[in-house]
Amino acid sequence: MNSPFPILTAQEAAALVQHNQTIGFSGFTPAGAAKVIPTAIAEKAIAEHAAEREFKIGVITGASTGPSLDGALAKADAIKFRTPYQSDKDLRASINAGKTHFFDMHLSLLPQYVRYGFLGDVDWAIVEAADVSVDGKILLTTSVGAAPTFLSKAKKILVEVNARHPKALLGFHDIYEPESPPHRRPIPICNADDRIGTQRVWVDPKKIAGIVHSNRPDEVKDFSPVTDVTTKIGLNVAEFLAGEIRNGHIPKSFLPIQSGVGNVANAVLGAMGDHPEIPRFQMYSEVIQDSVIELVKQDRCGFVSGVSLTVTDPVLQSIYDNLDYFRGRLLLRPQEIANNPEIVRRIGIVSINTALEADIFGNINSTHVLGQKMMNGIGGSGDFTRNAYISIFTCPSTAKDGSISAIVPMCSHMDHSEHSVQVLVTEHGVADFRGKDPRERATAVIENCVDPSYRDLLWTYFRLTENGHTPQSFRSAFAFHEAFLETGDMRNTKF
Question: Could you tell me the residue range of the domain that residue 130 belongs to?
């Protein structure tokens, strides 16, 4: 059957997008992100700027995307504002230079902010799909993100139908949008593998302005390989969780796991899979990485619910070659469901996320380098951390060959307070904050988690102030950061 929708080139689709419009793009990481249309929009922006005409658009996505979207638009100076999360180096540079307005937010909140109109009108939804039916049923690809909300709220829709993704993906998505207050009801998920929604996103066919055909792979890069440091962190987390089972804090049947993204997360999951005392487990998380797929293949992870299938091309092909095996083991949900605090609290998720910086009292910085420069954003870590059964943060104790201590007297920026963080893990050990006051937490961090080259310095800081519930010194709280800015090495700190 011929398509009832106009078939456009990427350039023809881009021509429909006008200056100062707001676009909701599919994608949660590079997985499932629109690719050919945003690249064409970037080319249009370059041409408009060359003709001395203004052209910038508001960009809303599920989370980070790839170089064909965030990267191309940033290089073209085509982004008026951006939310909620990014990881592209060119976009990051534009944000930190003040050229692109970026506002960070919890990923679970993004879709409802769009529905409530807090971010203004959405002029276009531009989404990648494996298939579009004549009656407007859209089969998404390797992520869901916030695409269902963009599709429902956008005035017009452009769809990239990507031949890389088979129509047999039907059944891998669970599309559900909660009602808005005051009519919101409980989200009926009690187990990681519960299905509550539809397999496709339905839209009014009249809103579809065109279809663009593509054949582009997801722009997922390999993460850094596991190192001795990350291996030790993974072993420390696995042994801590095994100990929690032994002492009865975690049921012997275990609990669902949420894990962040990157080489530390991969090392942690690998160690959990290898630990003989950790049983076969489920995941209720965001990003499904290569390491997770390996655990599914080994049947160490029996089911994984996420927002995106962020895997390298060979791993994705192995999934597509074995769809029947994975169909009952992988499920992709909207980010407001995957990250929903109600569900996190109900099913008892153990959250494991990565910190850029921690302080000795248990506060976490996950977004800003030296308190000023945005790295990526808070992502979904806050959604899980604040509501987890056990909240764990991991990080190597040092960076830049030891010249930076990841553990400092006071965080230069705070995303997660001591009230949300229960456990800190580095390659040196574990600090368990539960039931400890600030002085006891500081003692546990310095003794167990800090690199030996910084322990004496942090003990010195701890002893500067005798009074107060939290013994901070205003004069010295950022002495580590000042030493690095002045000398290039925090070990040169003087109190």
Answer: 10-214
